[in-house]
User: What shape does this take?
Amino acid sequence: MAWAYLVVAGLFEVGWAIGLKYTEGWTRLWPSLLTIVAMIASVIFLNFALKSLPVGTAYAAWTGIGAVGTVILGIYLFGEPAGAARLACIVLIVAGIVGLKLVS
Assistant: This one.
């Protein structure tokens, strides 16, 4: 169950990272409120995961999920570059997350 909490926490991290772009410097009310809710939810679910996962493993996976999801949505939503080297780096991050799961 801890890994499920961790995945949810990572997805909320993606939500607030992408949400920051839509707040336009915290000048738009609804995107700002949703971003704050996603920030809080992300930390709450990370806390649940930390009850049974080592902090180093959980934090690395949490930030990895957030980074991968944010890069992918950045490519999709904002037309950010999707070069081969960038995609290869995403694969390496995913491999690291899977590796942490296998050894935890």
About this structure: The chain has a mean pLDDT of 97. The two ends are 13 Å apart (CA to CA). The first helix runs from residue 2 to 23. Helices lie at 2-23, 29-50, 55-78, 84-103.
